[in-house]
Amino acid sequence: MTEQHDVVVVGSANADLVVRVERWPAPGHTVPGSDLAVVPGGKGANQAVAAARLGGRVAFVGRVGDDPYGTLLRGSLERAGVALDALVTTPGPSGTALITVGPEGESSIIVSPGANGRVTPDDIDRAAGVVGAARVVSLQLEIPMPAVRRAAETAAAAGARVVLNPSPAGPVPLAVLALCDPLVVNEHEAAYLLDGAVGDPAAGAAALRALGPRSAVITLGAAGAVTADATGTARIPAPRVRAVDTTGAGDAFTAALCLRLARGDDLAAAARFAVRAGAAAVRREGAQPSFPTAAELP
Ligand code: ATP
């Protein structure tokens, strides 16, 4: 029998190539930068690592390339204790994100999908045992939509709960939205899906739910999150912390939410834990290195 995982993440793994600059190059220009840092990232891998660090039994479904970055990405997932039976090494480059961080800490990012762009519905069918045995299947939009859709359908048909974080913001077919429980978005993604500014967050979460998902969550940065499900809406304040680096806060939040839903919490209770995980992640630099352990969130 396939082992049941709390959370199965079907998604992306990227090598983040990070350089700091004092000023941005104009097109055709060259500027000096800091030493290059190569760190494991990608929304899927980040969420898998975050859920595992919180003590979850987690598996990852996706693809990495047969380049050195593929080895790096596989290694970081393995060290976190994520099951990798359904992680395929595919010929060609791994996903990479070219990240330039400016003097004020703002970043500009180019994502090259690489192996993430080669995840297919057939991959999901081959991993159907893992996906179907999950309590919660976590999805994002850094792999092609046909694979996202097949994963959502496979999970739902097997009785697993589907959580979709539609990031980077993009269109989501109604058939996929209808399977989400919840849809998890930040304010920018909410505005994209609602076709305009969110306004009152609770009304926004309810409006998102009206698009089809069984439940919805909007994360609000330092202001926490708001949830909407059949029982109504709930505002969940975030703990006050000194923010050092918000990279990965959304991934820490979503991973923690998925884990607590898998353990049987209702949506508002899971979100109350998730805001603590998100807040912990902004207190440290980076994405994966900033994710808290279960011991840090008693
Ligand atoms: P990112 O893209 O930086 O990973 P995001 O835009 O997807 O994040 P946010 O809404 O900014 O998502 O943050 C997710 C969660 O992290 C929030 O709901 C909150 O719980 C926590 N968080 C983020 N920023 C702060 C902050 N400054 N103080 C406390 N908690 C924070």
UniProtKB/TrEMBL annotation:
Active-site feature positions: D251 (proton acceptor)
Compartments in which it is found: Cytoplasm
GO molecular function: ATP binding; metal ion binding; ribokinase activity
Residues reported in the UniProt entry to bind K(+): D245, T247, A281, R284, G286, S290
Pathway note: Carbohydrate metabolism; D-ribose degradation; D-ribose 5-phosphate from beta-D-ribopyranose: step 2/2
Named cofactor requirement(s): Mg(2+)
Chief site of localization: cytoplasm
Carbohydrate kinase PfkB domain: residues covered: 5-293
EC identifiers of the protein: 2.7.1.15
Highest taxon in the source lineage: Bacteria
Binding site for substrate: N14, A15, D16, G42, K43, G44, A45, N46, E142, D251
One Pfam family this sequence matches: PfkB
Membrane-spanning parts: none
Alphabetical keyword list: ATP-binding, Carbohydrate metabolism, Cytoplasm, Kinase, Magnesium, Metal-binding, Nucleotide-binding, Potassium, Transferase
Quaternary structure and interacting proteins, as annotated: Homodimer.
Record's function text: Catalyzes the phosphorylation of ribose at O-5 in a reaction requiring ATP and magnesium. The resulting D-ribose-5-phosphate can then be used either for sythesis of nucleotides, histidine, and tryptophan, or as a component of the pentose phosphate pathway.
Protein name: Ribokinase
Gene source species: Thermomonospora cellulosilytica
